[in-house]
Amino acid sequence: MSERLDIILFGATGITGKTTIPYLYKFAAEKSSLKWGIAGRSKQKLKDILSETAKRIDVHDLSHIPIIIADVENEDSIRSMTAQAKVIINCCGPYKLYGEVVIKACVDSGTHHLDLTAELQFIEEMKLKYHKEAEEKGIYIVNACGFDSVPSDLGTLFVEKHFEGTMNSVEMYMHTYFQAGSTSDPKIGYGTWASLVNAMGDFRNILSLRKKIYPKPLSDLRPKLSLRYPFHKIDNKWALPYPTTDAGIIQNSHKYFYDNEEKRPIQVRSYILMDSFITAMSVIFRGFFLFFLAQCKFGRNLLLKYPEFFTGGFFSSKDIPDDVSERIHFSFTLLCKGWKERITEIKCDTPTNKTVVGRISGINPVYGVTGLAATLGAISILKEPKQLPFKGGVYTPAVAFSKTSLLDELQKNGVIFEIISNKED
Questions:
Q1: What's the Cα-to-Cα distance from 56 to each of 9, 322, 374, 414, rounded to whole Å?
Q2: Cα separation, 216 vs 257, whole angstroms
Q3: pTM for this prediction
Q4: pLDDT per residue over 165-189, tens digit each?
Q5: Is the separation of the CB atoms in 394 and 100 below 8 Å?
Q6: Which H or E run contains 406?
Q7: Strands (E), 94-151
Q8: Residue of 178, 180, 261, 390 with fewest CB within 10 Å of its CB?
Q9: In whole angstroms, how far apart are CA 181 and each of 90, 263, 314, 368, 384?
């Protein structure tokens, strides 16, 4: 193990990979003992990305960074790569197609693994297949370790710690906007689009997977948090139900805390905010159309082939300009209700009497926050092993990092966690 690199970034030549490299360089420089490398299919492309990154971050040379050749179509090369690292940051998606081979190799070679997937079915499948073996070997597999779902998952814990009572529910409102107006440039790359299309297509399989993972589901929580549909207004914006991976990740986290720490579970509903009624209606109709297409193979192929056409240029197979990513601002507003008293029973008829509103905000969510969170998560595994869950396994970010310094480190690097209001009814 002493001869292994601390971190290998797999998929370094993709959009997410190349935006993660500067974070690896920065934090390795701050922690001189941290050794890292990059991996992918093409040696020349990997050399080129190191040269390009050196110019971007204004350093003389990165040619000394180790390069490892690994291809998801060649399992032996993946196994060789994982055997050379203590932690793999896997940026190679869509994970439904390319993710399992890396996780399997990590478990076999005793290597920790973080990925950036927003594909809930993939997450559930990996937990079902590899949790027990990873637990036995003391290996940590952490899914959804980027913008999906570190800010929302850790943010919910952040608000809970400031609640001073018992939280019953979280209504999560995501909002994004562009500094200095809009732009016709694409905002998000093809890998994220492919993951989204696959997730929509796999929607019907998630419930059956959850029944296998959680054979003893929670009784209905009370008071029940109902979904507000088709839309409602809050803070002069229109809120639409948003079937994000974040809600599923948060629920999985709190199912773990219920089973292992006897904490009352938290109900979650997620929404996306639109600035106008016309935009909200347009998103509703387009969303239903895309979801309908994703339910069959032919429709998914169309969506994957023509991302610009089906999303009005928002998603693209082209590179995303850095100046566009840096102009995207985001916020999660967490409207949390519960009791000022300690409540333990699952079904409680006492009306809630406390509301706390938290907010997580920052810029460049898809690539900047993702690269930052993944790098700091990997460092947390390396530097804070005693703060991780007692046993290895397949975990959500909140379960893996709730006792580490990850949230504080995110705060230091531009992701803001704050309490907006704290009121007793």
A1: 18, 10, 20, 19
A2: 15
A3: 0.90
A4: 999 999 999 998 887 655 555 567 6
A5: no
A6: helix 406-412
A7: 112-115, 140-142
A8: 180
A9: 33, 44, 15, 20, 42
